Amino acid sequence: MIIDNLKDSAESIRKKLGREQYEYALVLGSGLGDLADEIENPVVIDYHDIPHFPVSTVPGHKGLLVAGKLEGKNVIAMQGRFHFYEGWSMDEVVYPIRVFHLLGVEKLILTNAAGCVNTAWNPGNLMLITDHIKLISESPNRGPNIDELGERFFDMSEAYCLEGRQKVKEAAEDLGIDLKEGVYMMFSGPNFETPAEVRFARLAGADAVGMSTVPEAIAASHMHMKCIGISCMTNMAAGILNQKLNHEEVLETGERVKKSFQKLVKETIRRW
Ligand code: HPA
């Protein structure tokens, strides 16, 4: 039973962290993992050392849980997440999120690198996710419902917590960060989209395309965990500029904006 594995994992982490209550979980996307280095008095747990935990394979992604204080709040950060394109099932992709819930974490901050679909924006812009579109048919909640986590049919009309989003906007304003807001569309990857797919995404109302975040947000809604998402537009999506896409560009832009990205996440944690 998945729930037994989840409880096993939570129990193993709990033993390493002690009795302290953790309020926030932070999922760090491509090139954004450095924020975990700012966590004070960190307890670092290798994914290998957590029973049943998946282990990431992507270059630029580590496989560590880093727990400690950020802005005086107790935070558990994932340095390295699990992507559907790596071959993990949706259950495995959201496995850590469910473990965080069992550990008592109430607020989830999802970050990612994304392709920018909105032609009025630029690489390096940060986007607060207001909503998402899941293009692929798989859901992390397909299969027998885990009743201990949430109900079979659940609402997604505020998948990204309105109050949390307000805090991110206030934080951005105070920091002088030009924060965009928009809709994230998940493609399964690992290929970047075709220009036609990007046009389709724009017609459908998406501002950004990416390969993550949506499963985690769905699992969070199921468990009534408050969730916010921030995307870093690392590149214009395919077909917008006359150039080809590559992972190096994604990492380079991540590197360029990571300081303001980190400031925004920290200021959000301070306020939310
Ligand atoms: N498409 C999908 N995922 C991405 C992109 C992109 O253009 N850039 C960074 N992650």
Structure overview:
The protein is α/β, with parallel strands linked by helices. It has seven helices and nine strands, in the order αββββααββαβαβαβα. It has helices spanning 2-17, 90-93, 95-102, 162-175, 195-203, 214-222, 247-271; strands at 24-28, 40-46, 64-70, 73-79, 107-116, 126-134, 179-186, 208-210, 226-236. The chain has a five-stranded mixed beta barrel, surrounded by four helices. The radius of gyration is 17 Å and the shape is globular. 46% of the residues are buried. The mean pLDDT is 93. Hypoxanthine (HPA) is lined by residues 113-115, 192-193, 209-211, 234-235, 237, 245, 250.
Short structural description:
With 272 residues, the chain is an alpha/beta fold. 31% of the residues lie in helices and 25% in strands.
Let me know the largest β-sheet: 5 strands, mixed, barrel
- For the CA atoms, what is the radius of gyration? 17 Å
Into which percentage range does the β-strand content fall? 15-25%
SSE run:
HEEEEHHEEHEHEHEH
Helix content: 25-40%
Morphology call: globular
How many helical stretches?
Answer: 7
